[in-house]
Amino acid sequence: MDFHTKRINLNEICTLERAVAGKIYKAGTCYIKLSATDEEVRQIHKPGTIDGRYAAIEPNGNINTDYLLIAVERGFPEFLRRYRTTINLQADTLKHFEVDWHNDKDAQKYITKCYKDVQDMIDMLKNQINNEKLIKKWYLENMMV
User: Fold this and answer.
1) Would residue 67 count as lying in a domain?
2) Please, which domain of life does this record's source organism belong to (predicted)?
């Protein structure tokens, strides 16, 4: 596996546009908020529409869409710092969006698997914390019965 990355412009691998109302985007299309922008990158998991308040990052060709989401999430904070105007992001600045990209498909699969494993552990710990809070609540409610 080759873990070397190359800095690429997202235009090379994706179509970047302000989301068009009624247009059906491919599964795996990422989208980011343009108005009152936050640092969250979202993704649709099945073909569907995206609200016009968002910018769509639609993959061209056969791209690992899980890896695309990871790459966009990693590059988005830096992009925001450079191109956000007050609380908004202009759609025409997307042409400057660059990400670090692994060309090796096996490296992409490995990174995606590692991210998924870590996210699964985080989710498990969150569930454990919530369960312990419920137990604590039960004990506190039943302590003086």
Assistant:
1) yes
2) Bacteria
Summarised one tens digit per residue, pLDDT across range 119-140 is 999 999 999 999 999 999 999 9
Structural domain count, the chain: 1
- Alpha carbon distance 66, 64 (integer Å): 6
Residue 58 falls inside a structural domain? yes
Half-sphere exposure of residue 51: CA atoms within 13 angstroms, side-chain side: 7
CATH code of the domain in which 40 resides: 3.90.220.20
How far apart (Å, rounded) are the C-alpha atoms in residues 69 and 108?
Answer: 11
Q: How far apart are the first and last CA of the chain?
A: 62
| Residue keyed to tokens 């454990």 | 128
Enclosing domain of residue 23: 5-102
What number of residues does the chain have?
Answer: 145
In a domain, 72, yes or no: yes
120 touches 113 (CB < 8 A): no
* Helical ranges in 4-142 per DSSP H: 65-83, 105-142
Question: Can you tell me the distance from the alpha carbon of 77 to that of 80, in angstroms, rounded to the nearest whole number?
Answer: 5
Taking the model in full, what pTM does it have?
0.85
